[in-house]
Structures are given as structure tokens and as C-alpha cells.
Amino acid sequence: MAEKICCFCRHQRETTLAIKTDEARSSAARSRAEATFKKEERAKDGAKAMSEYLANARAVRENTERLRALRLAKEAADKKLADKKPVKKVAAGKV
């Protein structure tokens, strides 16, 4: 290790040379590979979740349309039935 004197405060400090060993390089490469893998997995999970969300939204929309059609048909049938029934008139003198 070499010692240098700092020009501003004249203190001595150590400087070390960064020498990477094969183990450190393989460890760094493994870390990068794992990070890339995790990133790809998150992207796949996100795409899967989005497709499930869209499928669920489509199913809800289709069910709502079906129920609305049934409700409108029932209301139309009830209206026809109400129009066919004669309305009974109550005599004014009797309560």
C-alpha cells in the first residue's frame, strides 16, 4: 500500500489498488444475472396480472350487459301485463 499526503490538510492516507479476483468477478456476474432474471420474472408476472385483470373486466362487462338485457325484458313484460289488466274504478260514495 502506498501512502499519500493530502495536499489540503497534509494528513497521510492510504490508497489501495482495486484488484478483482476471479471469485469477485464471478460473484459480480452472478449478481447481474440474478438481477436480470428477477427483472424478467417481474415483467412476466406483471403481464400475467394485466391479462387476468383485463379478462376479469371483460367478464364483468359481459355479465352486466346480460343482466341489463334481462331487466329490460322483464320491465317490458311487466308493462304489457299491466296494460292488459282492467283498472277497477271505485265508486265515489263508498270508501
Give, in order, the helices and strands: EEH
Unreliable runs, pLDDT <50, ≥5 residues? none
Distance between the termini: 115 Å
Helix content: 55-70%
Question: What does this 3D model show about the protein?
Answer:
There is one protein chain. The protein has one helix spanning about 20-85, and strands at about 1-5, 10-15. It has about 100 residues and is mainly alpha-helical. The protein has a domain at about 40-80. Strands 1-2 form a two-stranded antiparallel sheet. It is rod-shaped, with a radius of gyration of 40 Å.
Features:
95 residues; mainly alpha; two-stranded antiparallel sheet; rod-shaped
Draw up the topology in text.
Layout: E1 2-5, E2 12-15, H1 22-84
Antiparallel strand pairs: 1-2
In short:
This protein is mainly α and 95 residues long. Helix content is 66%, strand content 8%.
